[in-house]
Amino acid sequence: MTTGTELIKRFENFADPRLAEKWDHVGLQVGNPNQPINRLMTTLDVRPETVDEAIAKKVDFIFAHHPIMFHPAKDLDTRNPQNQMYAKLLANNITVYAAHTNLDTANGGMNDWLAAALRLRQTIPLVPAGKDPLSNKPVGMGRVGELAEEMAVQEFADYCMNIFQIKGLRLIVNPLDKSKKIKRVAILGGSGQEFYQQALENGADAYITGDVSYHFAHDMIASHLVVIDPGHHIEVIAAHELAKLISRWQDENNWQFAVMESQVNTEPFTFVVK
């Protein structure tokens, strides 16, 4: 039987926890990793509905991108939905592990998955982060690369909606730049508005990231950078790619457990069109 500890050891050779940002809480979240894994589920978020799905599917290990314990619980009052979720995980012996900004920074991780989905070529890190502690290779958060063919701004926005299978996005563009052609693209999954200057410095025509705020958007417009905000949830690509990665390691190590992807949609926002 393969334990969670064995899987975690293999994963952390791929995305070392030391690559995570200092504020982040990656690694074991809940449970006992020494337990054998019988059924593993990958997910972007661990929310109450995700936990209910795991229980229904008899999952005993959840591998998530977003941590569930950014802040310590002040009490364990299970009338609080978050605490109730922890109680359900413990009662059902479900281990939860999260790889967040270490997976964002690792070579072959989140931002490479997003860049590959966009079919970007000749990619480089957007925000260099030194070298991987294990491989000694350069790493960085985000990616910058080239589209095969240049696109008009609206065409590129439509392209992003198709790639990420979303019904809407926020387009931030200076009126003077609406006829601009997009060829060089920067992307950073999650919330990356503070790195738009690095996108400019890397010659990006457009920058894709989520959770852009009002004042940052004004600064981006003044800088003549086209910005696509498709939301934070495009990182759901992690559920599929993590499942593929773990399945590959299963073949290499003769691990015998079921791997599945969460089918729960954890996107909190709905686009309403008048």
From TrEMBL:
Name the keywords, alphabetized.
Answer: Metal-binding
Q: Which domain of life is it from?
A: Bacteria
What InterPro entries has UniProt attached to this entry? DUF34/NIF3, DUF34/NIF3_sf
Q: Which SUPFAM superfamilies match?
A: NIF3 (NGG1p interacting factor 3)-like
Q: Which family does it belong to?
A: Belongs to the GTP cyclohydrolase I type 2/NIF3 family.
Query: How does the record describe its quaternary structure?
Result: Homohexamer.
Known NCBIfam families for this protein? YbgI_SA1388 (TIGR00486)
Name under which the protein is recorded: GTP cyclohydrolase 1 type 2 homolog
- Organism source for this protein? Limosilactobacillus walteri
